[in-house]
Write a structure and sequence with these properties.
This protein is an alpha+beta fold and 250 residues long. It is built from eleven helices and nine strands. It starts with a helix and ends in a 10-residue tail after the last helix.
Length: 250
């Protein structure tokens, strides 16, 4: 079982290496990066070639991911796959506030950004699809947690407190969630990124079975100066599109 797990981990590491280098690589270069025996890497690459996930250039003896592999997950980022009304909501919100607007969903102990409407201002918050935010410290994470019951939050906190190097006190988390439920949104200044702020609310809809959190993010100074206006804007635009903040289970 350990060898299977190691092979799976090495596969992901190989594709991460290709993504980082963005060029064809030799088996020796891949083995050096993995810190693994060349024989093991050669066997793994041979299997990936047979599965048509990687191609081998026999003239240069270099490997490269195939376009077939590259296409496997493209549907996830395809705008046509994203809920149309949420996409239109985000576009309208970005036009109104001028800041970066994101949609994210929970992935275990993190929130993953799945759609971005970028700010056109010279100084703005830069967000990218697949970027991850810490569940316990971000506005998006708190907005999601507030949609759970206190018992559910406590159970998750007990689990994550044993495997994360640092995590906010449970009492602080529950207090922030209570405030988020009252306000229907969460505001965090200089939380995850120094000099940046975010305002987030969870929508009463799901995408691929996961709840979506809509956020406005930008430079802290500008976000503080416009906080009340952005709060009203976020809730107002959500209401216009028939999307209301989701609350905890009864």
């Amino acid at each position: 079982m350990a060898s299977v797990s190691q092979s799976v981990s090495r596969c992901f590491e190989i594709f991460s290496l290709f993504s980082e280098r963005q060029t064809a690589l030799t088996a020796a270069e891949i083995a050096e990066y993995l810190g693994a025996p060349r024989s093991s890497v050669a066997a793994l690459l041979k299997e990936l070639v047979e599965l048509r996930m990687v191609s081998l250039n026999r003239r240069t003896l270099t490997y490269l991911p195939t376009l077939g592999f590259a296409n496997l997950g493209t549907w996830l980022a395809d705008p046509a796959h994203f809920p149309r009304h949420i996409g239109e909501l985000m576009e309208a919100l970005q036009r109104d506030c001028g800041e970066t607007v994101t949609a994210s969903w929970p992935l275990d102990k993190e929130m993953e950004i799945v759609r971005v409407e970028k700010s056109r201002q010279p100084i703005s918050f830069i967000a990218e699809i697949s970027q991850r935010l810490p569940l316990w410290d971000s506005a998006a994470g708190t907005a999601y947690l507030a949609s759970l019951s206190n018992a559910q939050i406590s159970a998750r906190w007990e689990k994550d407190s044993r495997r994360l190097p640092s995590i906010p006190a449970l009492s602080d988390v529950l207090e922030r969630c209570a405030q988020t439920r009252q306000d229907q949104l969460c505001v965090v200044h200089a939380g995850v990124f120094e000099g940046a702020s975010a305002i987030a609310a969870i929508a009463d809809c799901e995408h691929d079975g996961r709840p979506l959190v809509i956020s406005i993010a930008g430079p802290e100074g500008r976000m503080r100066a416009n906080e009340q206006r952005y709060r009203e804007m976020l809730l107002g635009v959500m209401a216009t599109f028939g999307v209301v903040p989701s609350g905890p289970p009864a």
